[in-house]
Amino acid sequence: MPDDAAASPVRRIAGGLIGLAIVAGAALASVRVARESFRHPRTDDAAVRVNVVGIAPHVSGPIVALDVVDNQEVAEGARLFAIDPRPFAVALERARAQRLLVESENAALEKGIAAAGAEKRRVEAELAYARAHRERLEPMVPQNYVTKDRLDEANAKALGAAAELEKAREEEERLTRQLAQYGNRNARVQAAEAAVAAAELDLAYCEVRAPFPARVTNLNISAGQYARAGEQVFALVDTRRTWVLAYFRETMLAGIRPGMAADVFLPAYPGRHFRGTVQGIGWALAPQDGATVGVLPEVQPTLNWVRLARRLPVRVRVDETDPDHPLRMGMSAVVRVLGEPASSPARP
Questions:
Q1: Taking the CA of residue 315 as centre, how many other CA atoms within 13 Å lie in the half-sphere pointing to its CB?
Q2: Are residues 284 and 269 located together in one domain of the fold?
Q3: Rounded CA separation 95/211 (Å)
């Protein structure tokens, strides 16, 4: 009994010391965790993202060949599908024939312009002779060397030659305008060549090719379906660039800078991590309130007692790829910002 009484203060002291140690350890752990969260922000609210481009033809027509299947990997320039080229081939031949017709018409117009120029020069010579002849006869009329009728006849010939000259000039100008030649460029020929180029482009558009290395996705068509210009047929996933969109609380953004290195972990691949680089931090979020009525903002008069920190998107570029562990769009991810430049050597 005395031993129990003596041991009771010892137990109380030991219990108090253990309690203090637990509290001190918890405080130290909290400080360390808070410091680590600030130095190396971490979030599990992240997902893999890639660029997805909808593929739509430039021309309309039935699909006569489908060269890919869903989820297939395609190289840049590989043909995806083909649209019936026959109507566009006919349009191209029509445009080429129209160009030949324009060239033939231009040759005829050039000959007509040359003929009109020759006619104009002939009439100019006649007009010059008629005016000179009239000027010679005018002083002879008062002296009765020539009759008034001969002077009137000479004057009529001069007026007729002037009218013919005006007509010849107008004809030459009309043919010149119709030729539409401006320096070394002919508008009619250029328009015909532009029509041929447009027809050739439409014919080339009948074959739709991959603009970059990609994966086919959402393919729900088959040969024979009518494709309309500008309407997406399926999508391509750009496999050249992959990034992770991580949402960090706004209280963590002070420890994140573009260019910092980051570790990316995917639950789909336990034990495998990818090295990345912080590319940028989002600048805008859709407001939860603050609707506009007329030209003035509408602000709600209430304020919640608990204000939760908003999350802003941080884009992390994945710097390495692994064919055995592909990053698929939508995969969940965990991102940890290392707080050091991406050029620094990787930590062991």
A1: 11
A2: yes
A3: 28
Looking up residue 194, the CATH number of its domain turns out to be 1.10.287.470
Residues of the chain where predicted confidence (pLDDT) is lower than 50: 1, 344-348
Residue ranges making up the domain that contains 221: 57-84+206-231
Assign 331 to helix, strand or coil: coil
Same structural domain, 166 and 267? no
Tokens of 3: 């031993």
Give the pair of three-digit tokens for residue 210. Answer: 């991959």
pLDDT at residue 5, rounded to an integer? 52
| Burial of 84 from C-beta contacts in 10 A (0-12 / 13-18 / 19+) | middle
Sign of CA dihedral 63, 66, 69, 72: negative
User: Contact 221/208 with Cβ under 8 angstroms?
Assistant: no
**Cβ atoms 120, 214 nearer than 8 A:** no
Other CB atoms within 10 Å distance of the CB of residue 73: 13
Q: What is the CATH number of the domain that holds 260?
A: 2.40.30.170
Summarize pLDDT for 43-81 with one digit per residue, the tens.
999 999 999 999 999 999 999 999 999 999 999 999 999
Q: 294-318 burial, b if ≥16 CB within 10 A, otherwise e?
A: eeeeeeeeeeeeeeeeebbbbbbbb
**Which of these, 51, 39, 48, lies nearest to 264 by C-alpha position?**
48
Residues 197 and 292 in one domain: no
For residue 55, the SS3 value is strand
Residues 76 and 210 occupy one common structural domain: yes
Residues 280, 323, single domain; the answer is yes
Domain identity same for 76 and 167: no
Q: Which residues contact 237 (CB under 8 A, 6 or more apart)?
A: 50, 51, 52, 214, 215, 216, 217, 329
Is residue 165 in a domain?
yes
Q: Which residue has the tokens 């609380």?
A: 249
**Distances in whole angstroms, Cα of residue 331 to Cα of each of 209, 230, 243, 296:** 28, 30, 11, 42
Residues 263 and 320 in one domain: yes
Contacts of 275 (CB under 8 A, 6+ apart): 261, 262, 263, 264, 318, 319, 320, 346
For residues 93 and 182, membership in a common domain is answered with: yes
Tell me how far the alpha carbon of residue 210 is from its chain's centroid: 15
